[in-house]
Amino acid sequence: MSSLAERKARLIVHGDAPYNAEPPLERLRSAYRTAADDFYVRSHGDLPEIDADGYRLTLDGALPTALELSLHGLQKRFPQVTVTATMQCAGNRRADMRAVAPVSGDPWDGGAIGTADWTGVRLGDVLREAGITEGANLHVAFESHDTVEGHPYGASIPLAKALSPETLLAFAMNGAPLLPEHGFPLRAVVPGFAGVRSPKWLKRITVQDRPSDNPIQAGDYKLYPADVTAETADPATGHTINIMPLNAVICEPARGASLQAGASRITGYAVSGDRAVVRVDVSGDGGRTWAQAALEHDAGAPFAWTFWMIDLELPSGEHELAVRAWDEAGQTQPAAPDDTWNYKGYLSASWHRVRVTVD
Ligand SMILES: Nc1nc2c(c(=O)[nH]1)N[C@H]1C(S)=C(S)[C@@H](COP(=O)(O)O)O[C@H]1N2
Ligand SMILES: [Mo]
């Protein structure tokens, strides 16, 4: 395994402590399954170092049988499954919102996203073994080994999502044990939900009648209207970000690229938390006219992104490329970041625009 320093050197680093980094878009688009060392890292606190041999996961709360599982015990006791799914930060593309007005948080470009084969056990299988009452109006709260401003990291998901077959306790990514920065030895993977609901370095899972009261769940990752500020924000009225919206990004060419006259290849990704992407439109003239891109999707992976590409004839001069995806409900993305601007810069999902020059 490479060292953390070597892996850091491959990425665009937004901060060292906590460590936050994303891959260049061109490299992100080079493989449908993102290599673990090209996968963005979002951390809120320290990177805990956990010894796999001594590792224990506790399950408690509203469960007839509390469980304590070693990593090996978990792997032996429950069927192992692999789910190909996209993980995305709620702050992906925040940089585009920051161009409208100041926002808080790291200025992620379109690289706070990645797709992997996650191998683990179904969280639902573990909860059923502990005797969970299906259909109850409960929440599954996770607590992790890292510390964020004096508290352990914590977040929760509704029981229905926890019991859904795609939701995993994962120990491997693309066939190898999780890297330390991606949650070794065990993390949750909650496909379709914002990354914040997929806690890394899991310590404890508690079933309870209300969402986690951890500040990450109760205070952060809320969507506010445009007139709300850091001073007026009331977390009790902010919308809890779970399902990720429809989004699309141009990965190549890069912003400001110089292209040769003739057909130019334009590539990127499109993604939606809970609906299929059915069409991707690409414009060479800032959104006045559109052409349809060819789509590449893994039919067996409903929670994974769609890759798209198109060859566009662009005359010489300056052009604004734009992309917008459509989902199976016939919905598309807002045209401008102003439309959904919020002071936290979450869910930035307007048409992605890239200016290029053609010789
Ligand atoms: N314990 C813990 N889990 C965490 C986080 C964290 O800081 N601590 N960050 C969350 C956020 S906001 C995201 S977007 C994803 C990122 O996962 P990755 O770093 O493996 O890409 O992890 C989530 N799980
Ligand atoms: Mo995130």
UniProtKB/TrEMBL annotation:
Residues 44-215 form the Oxidoreductase molybdopterin-binding domain. Keywords: Metal-binding, Molybdenum, Oxidoreductase. Residues 240-358 form the Moybdenum cofactor oxidoreductase dimerisation domain. It comes from the Bacteria. Its cofactor is Mo-molybdopterin. InterPro entries: Ig_E-set, MoCF_OxRdtse_dimer, Mopterin_OxRdtase_euk, OxRdtase_Mopterin-bd_dom, OxRdtase_Mopterin-bd_sf. This is Molybdopterin oxidoreductase.
